[in-house]
Design goal:
This protein is mostly helical. The chain contains 15 helices and two strands.
């Protein structure tokens, strides 16, 4: 290794250490939960930015005066919370913001409950029926054009028996309704709805055109474009009422959520 390369490595190591300045004052007091809490605070505050390399395991041990087991436990905790990634040959880096951990935690919680598909589907219906009418005021012409294109693609996919495309465009239609609210914080909070919609809207018969309820989506879009919140709410209520038809949905709605979650391959995060 050349002198320049050695100097570069020392500078990189010094930079990583500098990002944890202040922790050294806690030497001897740190346990894994405290190490994790301090690193988490720096990540959430922006002191440690997405993609930034953390000091190596041995550097952290030396810097903080703790054992490797303490560091490993702390890093495992941060990885589980989606704050740090560990890759062979790349070390430890601050993870980019992602809803994946949040989504998976919610789905696992639902899967370990005693809830039936009816419970989950009705909760989703309540959320959408109450929120989507607000989009009649907040939505833009760009939103309506996007929803129009998605609805057309959805209808065409069902007519052509292209079931994967039908599932994707159906999901995008419902997500587009929520995005038309233009409330970024609410959109973040509702991110797990992506998977809930995928699971709860699976037709009883995946290859039966009538079970995709295509015709109940058009009135929703028409009412939004007319900027009529009452009509939007009624259209949403009618849409979800169709998915409660006991002749087709009784068996599906009675099933435990966990069974459907573990059986539907595209539902897994």
């Amino acid at each position: 290794m050349s002198r320049g390369e050695e100097d570069g490595q020392r500078a990189t190591s010094a930079g990583r250490r500098a990002s944890l300045e202040g922790l050294t004052g806690l030497r001897g007091e740190l346990k894994s939960d405290r190490v994790a809490a301090e690193l988490e605070r720096r990540i959430l505050s922006g002191q440690l930015e997405p993609g930034e390399r953390l000091p190596t395991e041995s550097e952290l041990c030396e810097l903080l005066g703790v054992s490797r087991s303490v560091i490993r436990d702390a890093i495992r905790s941060l990885v589980a919370r989606g704050l740090v990634t560990v890759r062979q040959g790349h070390g430890m880096t601050v993870a980019a913001p992602s809803e994946a951990v949040f989504v998976e935690a919610l789905l696992i919680l639902l899967a370990r409950s005693d809830l039936r598909m009816a419970d989950v589907a009705d909760a989703r219906a309540t959320i959408e029926t109450r929120l989507v009418p607000l989009a009649a005021q907040s939505g833009t012409e760009v939103d309506w054009k996007h929803l129009e294109a998605v609805f057309t693609a959805f209808a065409d996919a069902v007519d052509a028996s292209q079931w994967d495309a039908a599932r994707e465009t159906h999901l995008e239609f419902h997500l587009g309704l929520l995005r038309a609210l233009h409330q970024p914080a609410l959109e973040l909070l509702l991110r797990p709805m992506t998977e809930v919609i995928l699971i709860s809207s699976a037709p009883p018969r995946l290859t039966a055109r009538e079970d995709w309820e295509v015709e109940t989506h058009r009135p929703i879009l028409d009412a939004l474009k007319a900027r009529d919140p009452a009509a939007v709410e009624q259209a949403m209520a009618d849409h979800f009422a169709a998915t409660r038809d006991p002749r087709r949905y009784e068996t599906f709605r009675a099933r435990p959520f966990r069974d459907v979650f573990t059986e539907v391959p595209w539902a897994r995060p």
